[in-house]
Amino acid sequence: MVVLASLTKKQINDLVNAHESRFPMSIRENLVLKLSEIPKLDKRTAEKILTSVEDAYLRSLVEPGEAIGTVAAQSIGEPGTQMTLKTFHYAGVAELNVTLGLPRLIEILDARKNPASPYMTVYLEDPYSKEKEKAQEVQRMIELSTVESVSDDITVDLALMQIKITLNETLMKDKGVTAELIVNKLSKLKKGEVNLEGEEIIVDSKDLTIDDIYKLNEKIRDLKLKGVKGITRVIMSKDQEVDEWVLFTAGSNLPDVLSIPGVDPTRIKTNHIQEIRDTLGIEATRQAIIDEATAVLQEQGLDVDIRHIMLVADIMTQDGNLRQIGRHGISGEKESVLARASFEVTVKHLLNSAARGEKDKLKGITENVIIGQIIPLGTGTVDLIMWPGYKQKVKVKEDE
User: Where in the sequence is the domain holding 173, given as residue range(s)?
Assistant: First the structure.
């Protein structure tokens, strides 16, 4: 009985990487990790495992001529019909309303510039993530505080042409705002004299008209005191798994939040894909589309192969811009006139294309279906002319 020597981790690594053409790097790295965990692994067994993994990998690849676009559309579209229209619930934070289900999937695929309910998950660096007081400091820096949010009442006195702001001490303390800060911000508007009298601020605007003073009243209500524009609410929650404080925001402003001290830039998340495109670039946008679409489907309990979602994300971002899947994006930019016309606004496409003298080379699926030709998929991808008995006929002629 021959006992084969066990392989070391270096030998396993060399054995796997000796066949670079067999697997991509990600599979090779995983193979080295998994094979290293097998006790008393000899070379013969390792080779058998590599052969079976290679067979499985080759079977998982797409065959030439397969309709990957159609399969991806069916794989995402069919479960989409079973999705709910719920918009409430978010990872244990009941105070935030987040768009989920079908409306959110449509938002992602339409590449909407402004999602219905933008939100962020903000992770913090040490020591902010471990200490509640420190986390609250970051919370106050992010949450938008306006004059209205720290006051009990804002009234207009037309007799004296004054605006009176009654401050709330508790709200001011909670948001880290002082009366002096409010006075300073109001003074910068240069719309009258600003005075602090006890717990009341009076803006004396005798030179303004009645219309102007009402406009000033609205402006004062929305005047930013501190925080990040667009983020109306920040909720602090303890993540029990990693034992750290995490911030959940209603509203999104990725570039401004990234610049706040204490925020971990490597783990911050937002559901605003357009913001990711403008801030982090197209590669991050592609990954965000994959993550967001996968999360929406999984939240509904639907299992869709990630490769279909990756294909959609690739198509949406392939030219460096974020494009929607629709008539204003990918479907409306197809080369084929008939394919564009079959999607939406048929007459417009046909008339415009006729006026420009466009030609349709009939390379796609839709246009061949329309004119009744074999589609260029599967067996239709191969053009084969066969003459049975051709050689025999030629031989007969030569003999003659």
Answer: 145-226
> DSSP letter at 200?
E
Among 161, 145, 254, 142, which Cα is nearest to 204's? Answer: 161
Count of C-beta atoms within a 10 Å radius of residue 34: 12
Domain assignment of residue 35, yes or no? yes
Quote the longest CA-to-CA distance of the chain: 123
Residue that wins the pLDDT comparison between 149 and 68: 68
For residue 290, the tally of other CB atoms under 10 A from its CB is: 17
Q: Could you tell me the pTM of the whole model?
A: 0.72
Residue 364 lies in a domain: no
Please state the length of the chain.
Answer: 400
Residue 398: its H or E element: helix 390-399
Question: Domain count of the chain?
Answer: 2
Instruction: Read off the DSSP letter of residue 35.
Output: H
Q: How far apart are CA 263 and CA 125, in angstroms?
A: 6
Could you tell me if residue 85 is inside a domain? no
Q: Evaluate whether 336 touches 360 at the Cβ level (below 8 Å).
A: yes
Residue 92: what pLDDT?
47
Q: Encoding tokens for residue 34?
A: 């998994």
pLDDT in tens, 311-350: 999 999 998 889 888 777 787 778 888 888 887 778 888 8
Helix (H, G, I), strand (E, B) or coil at 236: strand
